[in-house]
Amino acid sequence: MSLTLLSSRSSRWLVGVSAMLALPAAMANERVQVVTSFSILADMVENVGGDHVDVTSLVAADGDAHVYSPSPGDARSLANADLVVFNGLLFEGWMERLISASDYSGALVTATDGIEARAFAEHEEHDDHGHDEHDHEEHGHDDHGHDDHADDHAGHDHGNQDPHAWQDMHQAGVYVANIRDGLVAADADNADAYRANAEQYLQEMAEVDAEIRALIDEIPASTSVITGHDSFGYFSSAYGVNFLSPVGLSTEADPSGASMAALVDVIEQENVKALFHENMTNQSIITQLAEETGLPIAGTLYADALAAEGEASTYLGMMRHNAQVLHDALAEPGHDDHDHDHDHDHDHDHDDHGHSH
């Protein structure tokens, strides 16, 4: 066989291999490039978008979106995006500045559009705890007189509305509907896939929601929970667990000595049986409370960020994990008379919010 023939065959082989190697890159370039503000939204987009999206989360797993400082690379990510998804309700105080700096002019999805937002004004009602009736609609989850933290909400530019709506899985269904509609608008060719994925995801969310309710039902209604930062209001309203926080909304603040002493008094007055760390807050605060009160630290809850690995590395896994940790620490076997005044009709019919499937 001549060298010329070998050379010709080799050249064709190399061209063929190069073309095959180029296929994944070409296919990847056809995917919708989505940038999300933080990890929980990234997981939701991946579930709805499936193989048709590439997702970049500005704030990574275990990252704190409250204190995040965008980088020049983040601006470049936005500039190259087809779709940007963020929470809204002033959760990401830095997002508007980043969008402006990146010159991004594409589509924006505000995940909280259409939700029933909780008002932080509930925290002003300090005198009447009312835990026997478990009335969280009136009292919220941090209404125990932590005046030192009254300005924490303003310090984070959250305004008067609680932005942590994903902690109620019914509200999270609205997130999914908004994400679905944003992807359909950005990539109409794959609209059917986005709708089917969203429908499947909503069904999975309904199943996890039912699991959470079954677990929380075994926790006495009078039980209060101590966490490191004030982000479980929607969980409290939806599932009927009263949350107290030594820091208020801020993940930066260190409570004063007087505030810590007041919290110890509250722990003694309320039916607090355990303390919980959070994955992205200063754990020394809860550790100090445990030392001063003798209460156990019963585990880690995930509020504003997914875990980097493990069960809580997905949104559904995070919600299931939180409920299981609370149950394991606080449930009383055979207890099934937990008074859920907040038992919504969670049929995930998001047409009520102006979204059509």
Automatic annotation (TrEMBL):
Biological process (GO), any one: cell adhesion
Matches recorded under Gene3D superfamilies: Nitrogenase molybdenum iron protein domain
Coiled coil: 191-218
InterPro entries, per database record: AdhesinB, Bact_metal-bind_prot9, Lipoprotein_PsaA-like, ZnuA-like
Region of interest (Disordered), residue spans: 124-165, 332-357
SUPFAM superfamilies attached to this UniProt entry: Helical backbone' metal receptor
GO molecular function: metal ion binding
UniProt protein name: Zinc ABC transporter substrate-binding protein
Lineage, uppermost ranks: Bacteria, Pseudomonadati, Pseudomonadota, Gammaproteobacteria, Oceanospirillales
